[in-house]
Write a structure and sequence with these properties.
4 strands, 17 helices, mainly alpha
Length: about 450
């Protein structure tokens, strides 16, 4: 671990290049994706015994590492046991972060963690300070593995009667990891290729277990630690309170909207019983916020249903979690800012606390970038592939927010659109703000002085 920072210091002529923690995270994620690509491109990774080619391997490795779930081929049909194992490892590394894997070695060997490594841990966990970061990393690592193990046991016991010992064991582990890491990959293709979780949309045990894993994974590591330590809502920090309240509201409101919009749609909820409709409405509300499992055919959603899905995709989970999107608290800060400005107030307050102006600007910046990229992506995909703008936008938002749901058009995408999706998945996982800070923060000389003010007409 102590040598980790040295790996990212090298000389170029007479100049030594040092990478910041944010840059290290971005570079290591790229390295993991490249390694996964090379492994998946091997003939042994494909079920047919023939190499799938570089671009499909890159697409799948990026989707796995960025815990997105978009696929060009059905996971079970295309990939051998070796290929599926590679995908599972990439999902775990992408979901928990490479620092968690590196930390496991450190904790087992009882090595000391240096300042450089603490900085990388803090950045990987989306923390603003390094105090207690090692203990939090330890808690995250072992807590995450315990939750995934518990989910695997429940799924194993549920799959066992119908699918036998070997398949139930494998399916339990794979889908527990995929759900907790918000990846959305499935391997039920041996029974129903391409149907994701539609096969089990009438099974409350499987649906509720997957939803629980998705929600826990999307809450964020900091929130887990604080809830486990303090246990009382009134003692929680403002951030944790906002995450819990916003997550609850989004789940319930999203489920209600899906039920309302799809209740009589015969291609989605229309043919189900009332309890099954309610269950799948909630499942859709949970899974679209970055998980990617589908219990109904996304291509058959109404346009309004797709619109709600895209909105929830963009919101995503919470900071420092396995989820993507603009993040729940970012949305809350933006809404509070709009509400404050609409009332003529200069400050943004919540729970009797003032939100710093720089945090408000960060929220506005992230939302603006994400929405802008989503719209541009939708236009580009529809222009370069035989898909409608709505489906192209759905695909772009899904990739950018690392969700993985598709309206059934991913295999139809042209080469330019596939490359864009790869870029969006990487960009969405590493984080818009992380990339901006890591690679665009250069000389700050321009901030040492200010230009004269000018008046503009706004609105």
């Amino acid at each position: 671990m102590a040598s980790l920072g040295k790996l990212f210091r090298f000389r170029a002529g007479k100049h030594r290049i040092r990478l910041s923690p944010t840059q290290i995270i971005a570079v290591v994620f790229a390295g993991i994706i490249l390694t996964g690509t090379l492994l998946l491109a091997l003939p042994v990774a494909s079920r047919s015994g023939d190499s799938c080619g570089f671009l499909p391997a890159l697409f799948t490795a990026t989707s796995s590492t960025c815990v997105t779930g978009l696929v060009l081929y059905d996971t079970w049909t295309q990939w051998s046991s070796f290929g599926q194992a590679v995908i599972l490892v990439l999902i775990e590394l992408g979901g928990l972060g490479f620092m968690s894997a590196a930390s496991l070695v450190v904790f087992v060997l009882r090595r000391k963690v240096g300042l450089k490594q603490r900085m990388i841990m803090a950045q990987a966990l989306s923390l603003n300070e390094m105090e207690g970061v090692v203990n939090l990393q330890r808690w995250v690592l072992f807590g995450s593995l315990s939750i995934q193990f518990a989910g695997a046991i429940v799924l194993f016991l549920r799959f066992l009667p119908a699918y036998g010992l070997e398949r139930a064991f494998y399916w339990g582990i794979f889908h527990s990891v995929s759900a907790f890491c918000n990846a959305g990959f499935d391997i039920v293709g041996s029974v129903a290729p391409g149907d994701s979780m539609i096969l089990f949309n009438n099974d409350p045990v499987i649906c509720i277990t997957l939803m629980a894993l998705i929600i826990i994974g999307g809450l964020g590591f900091f929130v887990w630690e604080e809830v486990a330590r303090l246990r009382r809502f009134r003692k929680f920090s403002v951030y944790t309170k906002l995450v819990i309240l916003t997550t609850g509201v989004l789940i319930v409101a999203g489920g209600a909207m899906f039920c309302l919009l799809e209740w009589n749609n015969p291609a989605t909820l229309g043919q189900m019983s009332v309890p099954q409709k309610l269950l799948n409405g909630l499942f859709q509300s949970v899974t679209v916020r970055t998980a990617g499992f589908a219990s109904v055919d996304q291509a058959q959603l109404t346009d309004a249903g797709k619109g709600v899905s895209m909105l929830l995709m963009l919101i995503g989970g919470s900071s420092g979690s396995t989820a993507g999107g603009i993040k729940t608290v970012t949305l809350v800060v933006l809404l509070l800012f709009i509400w404050s400005r609409a009332r003529g107030r200069q400050t943004v307050c919540v729970f009797k606390r003032t939100i710093p102006a720089d945090k408000v600007l960060d929220a506005v910046t992230i939302v603006s970038i994400m929405v802008g990229l989503a719209l541009l992506g939708g236009i580009f995909i529809s222009a370069t592939s035989p898909v409608s703008f709505t489906d192209g936008l759905y695909e772009a938002v899904s990739a950018l927010a690392t969700v993985g749901l598709t309206a059934g058009v991913t295999p139809e995408l042209g080469l330019p659109a596939q490359i864009l999706i790869i870029i969006y998945m990487y960009f969405g996982r590493v984080g818009v703000l992380t990339i901006s800070l890591g690679f665009l923060m250069g000389d700050r000389a321009e901030e040492r002085f200010r230009c004269a003010h000018t008046n503009l007409l706004i609105g």
